[in-house]
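User: I'll paste a sequence; please echo it back and then give the predicted structure.

Assistant: Echoing your sequence first, then the prediction.
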Amino acid sequence: MANIDFIGRRISYGIAKEATRGTAATTATHWIPHLSADLQDKHESALNNSAMGVIDLNNDAIVTQIWSEGKIEGKIQVESFGLILLAALGQVTSAAGAKAGTFKHNFTRLNSNLSPSLTIFEKSPAADLKYELSCLKSLEIDIVTGEYVKYTADFIGRQGTPTTSTVTFVESEAEFTSKYCQLKMAANKAGLAAAPRVSIKSAKVKIERNTEAYYEAGSVTPAEIHNKAFDVMFECERRYSDNTLKDASLKNTKYALELSMVNTDDKIGTAKDENPSLKFTLPAVVISEWERDQGLDDVVMEKFTVQGLFSAANGTQIEAELVNSTASY
């Protein structure tokens, strides 16, 4: 066994959309700088504990299931994050943007238990692998004052297989920090455009897809990977100054919610005259939890959890809009 010592920073991850579900893409379309990751092969074994006239419990073992699973955490980058959004919501419509050389992508929740799959590529000094049929289990987006906007994507897929990859990172890809973020709440979706900004200290968006591997007799590899019930939640912390949100939670008041990020310091497009942006819209939500944090020597804060609801009028629970320089996903 070769003695190869290396640190985690030398492991690179790339992603690509699979043209045919479960058939690995040839190369990564985006290599994504990550902050942490634990994606790897996993397995389950069955132990043979048949009695053989001795007191020893087990006499053999066999592998029964093999799959890949793990999380990738990184900063939201305006081009590559489109593939993560596609894996999270399921479908996208792309069109030319308002300015030449820009594109607007509208992501909506696909009403299917077979979401688009990705191939995840991993390259390190010890291995060069690709994980086909990689499906998103959950996506979490974190906004904290004074920091980059980060995401954690949790995947499950098939066992990694050998490949040969050439890693290419795009250093100029625009990112977002908390200063670009804005939250709005209104009585309905139509009212969001004119709604005032809601001041916040931190926020978190959670998209749960309840994804699991499906196995069939004759193989230890997942035959399929299904996403099941779809759910969206939003958590927020802000200064406590009145009982508006507390009363809304007690009265079960319905809102529409919009979380937007516009990078006003980066320019994209042919003439460099457009700002990259990302926007989430939840047409119907309810404040499911509310609490006050009142440390004696701290500014009194309120924390609330928003539960996304399926909106029959809008046909979805969440929508996302991404403006960047990528033509399609």
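The mean pLDDT is 96. The two ends are 41 Å apart (CA to CA).
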